[in-house]
Amino acid sequence: MMHPSGEYIDVHEHLMGYQETLALLQAVEKDFGVRRYCNGYNAGGRWIFQIFNKEFVTKLAQIVKTVLLRTGKPGPVLEVMAGDGRLTEFLGPLVDRQTVATDSRDGRYDIAYPKWVERLGALEAIAHYSPSIVIACWEPYLSMAGLDVIKKRIPTLWIGDPQWCGHQDLFRSRSIPMGSEYALCRHDDFTGGTLRSGIFLFNCRSRWFSGQMVEQ
Q: What is the pLDDT of residues 3-44, one digit of tens each?
C-alpha cells in the first residue's frame, strides 16, 4: 500500500478490486486522513472525488451498454467535468463505443489535466459531440452544469454524493437510483461502513434496467 517514496500509493494508478481498494482507504483513514489523501497527498499527486474500483466500473459499463442498446443512438459516450479523465480511461475498454472526456478546466482544483481531456464546458461538449449518453462524476458543489445537461433530455449517468456535489435542485428531476454497492468517495467513513455516493440515471426508463437496480 506504500509507494517507495514513503507515501500511500495512488489508488487510481491502476484499477484495483473493491476489497483491495477498501483496505487501502481504511489504512489511509486510520493513519493519514482520507480527504487529505484525496487532495493530492498521494504518491501520484492526484485529486480524487469518486474512488474507482473494478466492480464499480464494471457496473457503470453495464449501465452504459444497456442505455446504448435501448436508445440505439449512434453518438459517443461523453464524460463532462471529467477532471483528469481517469474514469473515461477505466470505462472506455469496457464499452463498445467511442468515449470522450471533457472539462472546462476552470482552475477550481489543482488537477493535472492530460492533453487528451478536451477543454470544453459541458454544454459545449454536448453540442460538439451529440452524445448517446452523458456521464457526470462529482460535478462541483452547487454547479448548475448538471441541471443544464439534464434539460437536454439526453440519457445522463450522474455519479456522486447529492449532499456534496452538484446543485440541490438536480433531484427535482426524475432519476433512477442504480444502487451504491462498490461506490466509494472522499467523504465516506470506511471503517464504520458509512458510504455516501451512488449512481443515478436521468432521462431513461426504469424498465430498461430490470434486475440492475439496487435499493439505495
A: 888 899 999 999 999 999 999 999 999 999 999 999 999 999
Quote the Cα angle for 208-210-212, to 5°: 100
Name the CATH superfamily, with its identifier, for domain 50-209. Answer: Vaccinia Virus protein VP39 (3.40.50.150)
List the grid coordinates of 64: 452504459
Confidence at residue 213, expressed as pLDDT on a 0 to 100 scale = 56
Residue 160 CA to residue 121 CA, distance in Å, equals 19
- Give me the phi and psi of 21, to 5 degrees please: -65, -45
Q: Report residue 214 as a C-alpha cell.
A: 439496487
User: What is d(CA 102, CA 82) in angstroms, rounded to the nearest whole number?
Assistant: 6
Instruction: Pull the grid cell for residue 108.
Output: 477550481
Q: Which three cell numbers stand for residue 211?
A: 434486475
CA distance 9 to 100: 27
